[in-house]
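FAQ: What does a ligand-bound record look like?

Like this one, built around zinc ion:
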Amino acid sequence: MVKESLWAILIVVKTTILGIETSCDETSASVVEVSSGGIKILSNIISSQINIHKKYGGVVPEVASRAHLESINSVIEESLLASSKTFDNINFVAVTCGPGLSGSLVVGFSAAKIISSIFNKTLVCVNHLEGHIYANFVGQNQKKIKFPAIVLVVSGGHTQILKMTSHLKYEVLGQTKDDACGEAFDKVARILDVGYPGGPNIEKISKGISEDKYNFPRSGMGVKTGKDKDGFVIKINPDLDFSFSGLKTAVLSEVRKRKSGRLSKYDKKEIAASFQKAAIDVLVKKTIWAAERDKAKSVLLSGGVSANKELRKNLKKETKKIKVDFFVPDFELSTDNAAMIAIAGYFRNLKEKKSEVNINPNLKLVR
Ligand code: KG4
Ligand code: ZN
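The answer part, i.e. the structure of the complex:
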């Protein structure tokens, strides 16, 4: 393990990383430079497939991998051009190896592997979730983020509260038992028929609308019980696991209550706002519980749902109350992008020189 005191020495040298991300429906390449001045993103090109998948109401894996294939070369070229770097200037290549869609992952991974063999560069495999977490370490944040940190990861496929004890070391404190939070946003958007992508559309139609019209359920806010070694029921507090399927079902029931089956535009807005509030309340409360219990020095928000302004605002407010520093990536680094992969790759490469040499659609952050 690299000792904290060594970080300062290690980053005196300038390191240039080419990051590649194709785990879902964004083809992205980025050039990131790490020096004593901090972590600087020189380019971060993202080719979104939103318009392609829109007509299907969600990501179609085969369509996604074909779209990645069509754009990967130009996205990489563009990222180099925008950063005024060439393959020769790159120290190593960092690529998402999982979790994600296998047909999508393989496109980015193959491109990274070809570049690394032709130009004789190390290939570093990055976990997509680790990428989301490290999107917080841009600029001077690398020095400002103190451990232990509580990390809320909220994406389309994952919802977890992690305790980060040092760089690349995590403990899972809680996770969803059913739907991921982003998935719940996407499903509710489908129920309300407000289009794809779900999360941003729910946020958009909720803006300025009362959040209190519907009292949707907030799961797991009570005391969790378990059994001790002798089989006696004991209280486990706080419960840091999540469940969003009940919330989604409550929205569905509300919609089905209407005899006509029709919802006015305003009904949709009110349901969306109350749903968003219920989801955010649970995310914020549990993150604060974890931060207080484990005496966190920082709280980090990450994953696609971290683009949600209400979530950012509420978590910022609550962390301020408990006097813990709060970090959230810039909006363009909240959702999938390759800069976060390059940054996580930088830290991975410092720790382990060898790398996994294949994709793993079910790659786990904590094994
Ligand atoms: O991290 P991400 O870009 O891709 C995955 O790794 O899954 O996260 C995508 C998820 C989607 O479910 C999307 O609806 C959600 O993040 N999302 C949002 C917002 N922007 C993206 N959810 C709520 N509010 C948003 N503004
Ligand atoms: Zn993601």
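Follow-up question: can I read anything off the structure? Yes, for example: The mean pLDDT is 93.
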